[in-house]
Design a protein that fits this description.
The complex is a heterodimer of chains A (about 350) and B (about 500). Chain A is mostly helical. Chain A has a domain of about 240 residues. Chain A is built from 14 helices and no strands. Classes of the chains: A mainly alpha (about 350), B alpha/beta (about 500).
Chain lengths: ~350, ~500
């Protein structure tokens, strides 16, 4: 039977988005071909730029891989931002607390702390949903705000860089010790350990979802909680697991944003985007674009990462505001989401006409 | 059956209707006619082509070839609206009523009003009362639908069709939702209608009802007409064989089994329903090893809630007690009930029994997925898992293109066999089967029954909840009748009669 395959939708959506992007570039008085060339150059032109693209893709990939777990369990996690911050706060606090620990120990410890921080921040709405029927869309969004305010408080108070007290009072921690920095993979490049960690994490998510009893339960609960419950699977526990695991991966993204950064400190501008670069939301986009499949989320994240780095070059070369990247981002989401509806609709029609008699 | 006057000219003639879908010939040169004043039954299993034929009559499908004549003239029916305009009415199996509106408002829905934008409900009500009196339908036009019983709602559907001057009425499985008494009432109404010259197409698979009501019977199988007969010329056995195309056993053989100890013990079980009112009221029942206890009753009398409580899905009220083999399961969750030896075949197979999006293998793994024998280290051992599902699929003759087929694309009968395979594979001590053969074709039903009887002979205690009295009478050793949450009667199969059970089911 001919079915529209999953890969068709993202590609068509991306193509359409780029057509619209070209029109926008045209409207801004520049040549779309030059624009595309500038973006490709900005994302992949030099090895440094490739590294920058990979580094930009990393938090998207981690959040996105987490999102696939939640969405496969039919739990809508919009709390990536908060979970990133929670992971970053806990791991940074741990690193500040044990600054002298050797790198070989410190890195795994901060990673663990980030997983726990994000995991707890994800599990809270999970518990609320499972045992008190609180809608997780609302609770995860609200916990984003709580996390931002918690970060503002901690970085202006208990965790503030002692140097800033009495001077400019910039809300940031002190620079972490060098043995907390993620090692770079290539000398002189910005490509650091976080990139392979994220790819491995996505592969592990794939294995968990499709090769283990835990993933089986999560998917069963996601598809049909009634049947899962009747078969003896605890729906409540699996909702908490789904949000907890999803949050843990976002928390890991938070770790990488701090310990893979050049400034090697946690700093806020008072909101969340200043620290996360909206990875908590863009990760959802990457996951959707990857068809909610953890492995497809890898190339999908890299595409969005290249969009972000490419837009910088676009601005530099053609004086086109890099907000265009955000617009393209939004267009792709729009097309993916709506075309998914179209595809479901078409496939249903196809099935019905083939099945005939009910 | 009283003889209604048959006119010379058939009301409806469908000649040589052929309709194919890719890979399926849904109707193969089907001819079918209905005279004014007769009940012509269309009998066949799911997928036999009944619905396709009716959808063609309603203009939902266009036949590849063949013609439809109404009152002798070639008719072009292009949509349900044009069918209604040509005085063809349909009572769907699932009612098409707005629960918050009144009877009159539902009837008027979609009809032009002679008062422009305002509806003329008084005139509608008046006409409804007329129709209602004529056929003894006894429906108050001013009452909201949600306040009506299922039987009354069905009468509203009939009124809707009659209000639109239907001369030909199609009733799609109209008795599926009714109590035996309501069925009798419906048949009286239908006979009154045929006496007045209405032609009725009756779609059903309940053989004794078909024999009771029909003037003529047409049997479809695989898109072809395989039988054209009258109740006087045939019997249940013959009809079943025409439907299935081979010999069938309507009454399964049950070997003698010595009763063992009580394996499932229910003591004063009370359960609240979804609305917070008592749905199961002080039910006590023992089911012994080697025994099938049938729970008869019209749906909505607490059977579902009782089943869910036994399965650990619904909490029982204080003072209740549920035990399997002396293990107290009163406060158990589903996993604990299953660990104690319960197998549960839920009433709604696609809601509670199987995950539609999962493939065959995954659904067979739904309960045992945590079992160490299906794992290598922390990961699934897919070779072992597939071997296991292949064995079950073969053993229970589940018809599927492959093990990777999404379960939702199987037929109801095959999904039910799949669920039975999974549930029986765990070697249960108690089987709780709710509506095990509802909507399942005769072949699969026969197979499921034989499996239950086999489990009975190896000492399993079986509770079978069913609305189908034939099924209860054919399988059960003892029959408990539920009405308004209580078990109002428990009788031995040897002394049970359809009439007495029907009366008890209606609370009499």
């Amino acid at each position: 039977m001919k079915r529209l395959t999953a890969g068709f939708v993202p590609l068509a959506a991306a193509l359409l988005a780029f057509v619209f992007g070209a029109i926008m570039i045209l409207a801004l008085g520049a040549n779309p071909v030059d624009g595309l060339a500038a973006m490709i150059d900005g994302a992949f032109g030099t090895s440094d730029r490739v590294a920058a693209t990979a580094v930009r893709a990393t938090p998207l990939l981690l959040v996105g891989a987490g999102i696939t777990i939640a969405f496969r369990a039919s739990v809508i996690n919009i709390g990536g931002e908060g979970q990133i911050i929670a992971g970053a706060l806990l791991s940074t606090a741990v690193a500040l607390w044990i600054p002298g620990t050797p790198k070989i120990l410190l890195i795994p410890i901060v990673i663990l702390a980030g997983l726990i921080g994000g995991g707890i921040w994800g599990a809270i709405p999970g518990v609320l949903k499972a045992y008190a029927s609180v809608n997780e869309i609302l609770s995860t969004i609200m916990l984003n705000i709580v996390a931002i305010q918690l970060m503002n408080y901690l970085l202006r108070g208990p965790m503030i860089d002692p140097v800033e007290v009495g001077t400019s009072r910039i809300p940031q921690t002190q620079r972490l010790t060098d043995n907390a920095a993620f090692p770079t993979l290539i000398e002189g490049s910005r490509l650091h350990l976080g990139v392979p960690i994220a790819v491995i994490a996505a592969i592990i998510v794939y294995i968990i979802l499709f090769r283990t009893p835990l993933g089986f339960r999560l998917r069963a609960v996601g598809h049909n909680p009634d049947a899962a419950r009747a078969a003896g699977i605890s729906v409540e526990r699996n909702i908490v697991s789904a949000l907890g695991l999803s949050g843990a991966l976002s928390g890991l993204a938070g770790v990488i944003l701090v310990f893979g950064s050049e400034s090697l400190r946690l700093v806020t501008d008072g909101g969340s985007a200043g620290f996360t670069g909206s990875a908590g939301f863009n990760g959802i986009v990457a996951a959707l674009f990857g068809g909610l499949h953890p492995l497809w989320t890898i190339p999908s994240s890299f595409l969005f990462g290249s969009l972000l780095t490419g837009a910088t070059e676009l601005q530099r070369e053609l004086q086109i505001p890099n907000a265009l990247a955000i617009a393209l981002n939004g267009l792709i989401v729009l097309f993916v989401v709506s075309s998914d509806k179209v595809r479901t609709f078409l496939n249903e029609r196809l099935d019905r006409s083939l099945k005939g008699d009910s | 059956m009283e003889n209604a006057p048959l006119l010379q000219m058939p009301l409806l003639e469908m000649h040589g209707i052929t309709k194919s879908f890719p890979g399926v010939l849904a109707n193969d040169n089907v001819s079918f006619d209905v005279h004014a004043g007769e009940v012509h039954t269309l009998l066949g299993e799911n997928g036999a082509g009944k619905s396709t034929l009716m959808k063609i009559l309603f203009g939902l499908y266009k036949p590849d070839s063949g013609e439809i004549r109404l009152r002798g003239e070639v008719a072009s029916i292009t949509s349900p609206t044009s069918a209604i305009e040509q005085r063809v009415g349909m009572v769907h199996q699932h009612f098409m009523l707005v629960p918050t509106l009144t009877v009159a408002e539902n009837v008027a829905l979609g009809l032009p009003s002679n008062r422009g934008f305002r509806t003329d409900l008084d005139a509608v009500s008046e006409r409804i009362t007329e129709i209602s009196d004529q056929y003894g339908l006894a429906v108050d036009p001013g009452i909201e639908i949600w306040k009506l019983s299922v039987g009354e709602r069905q009468r509203v559907e009939i009124i809707k069709a009659l209000y639109r001057d239907a001369e030909l009425l199609v009733l799609d499985e109209p008795t599926a939702v009714l109590t035996p008494q309501e069925v009798d009432d419906l048949f009286v109404i239908l006979r009154q209608m045929t006496a007045d010259g209405t032609g009725i197409i009756f779609i059903s698979h309940k053989l004794h009802e078909v024999l009771e009501l029909s003037d003529r019977i047409t049997v479809l199988r695989n898109g072809k007409v395989t039988g054209d007969t009258t109740p006087a010329e045939t019997d249940r056995q013959q009809l079943a064989e025409m439907m299935v195309g081979r010999e069938v056993k309507l009454a399964p053989d049950k070997p003698h089994v010595d009763l063992g100890l009580a394996r499932l013990q229910l003591r004063s079980v009370s359960v609240k329903g979804d609305r917070g009112t008592i749905a199961v009221d002080d039910v006590s029942l023992d089911v012994h090893a080697g025994e099938i206890v049938g729970i008869a009753g019209v749906s909505g009398n607490g059977q579902r809630e009782l089943a869910e409580t036994i399965a650990g899905l619904r909490p029982a009220e204080a003072g209740s007690s549920v035990m399997i083999d002396d293990i107290d399961l009163t406060k158990a969750n589903p996993a604990q009930s299953r660990a104690a030896g319960l197998s549960y075949v839920p009433e709604e197979r696609m809601k509670d029994g199987a995950v539609g999006e999962f493939d065959i293998t995954e659904n067979l793994l739904l309960i045992d997925h945590g079992d160490a024998k299906f794992r290598k280290g922390p990961l699934f051992d897919f070779a072992k898992i597939r071997e296991h599902s292949q064995r079950l699929v073969d053993q229970f003759s589940v018809k599927t293109p492959s093990l990777d087929t999404p379960t939702s694309s199987l037929s109801g009968g095959n999904i039910q066999k799949l669920i039975m395979a999974r549930e029986l594979d765990s070697r249960p001590s108690v089987i709780l089967a709710a509506q095990p053969t509802r909507g399942v074709d005769i072949g699969a039903a026969e197979y499921i029954h034989s499996q239950l009887i086999e489990q009975r002979s190896i000492g399993v205690a079986i509770v079978m909840i069913s609305e189908d009295l034939d099924e209860i009478l054919g399988l059960a050793d003892r029959i408990a009748v539920m009405f308004e949450g209580r078990i109002v009667d428990v009788v031995d199969r040897s002394v049970a009669t359809r009439e007495a059970l029907g009366l008890a089911m209606a609370g009499g």
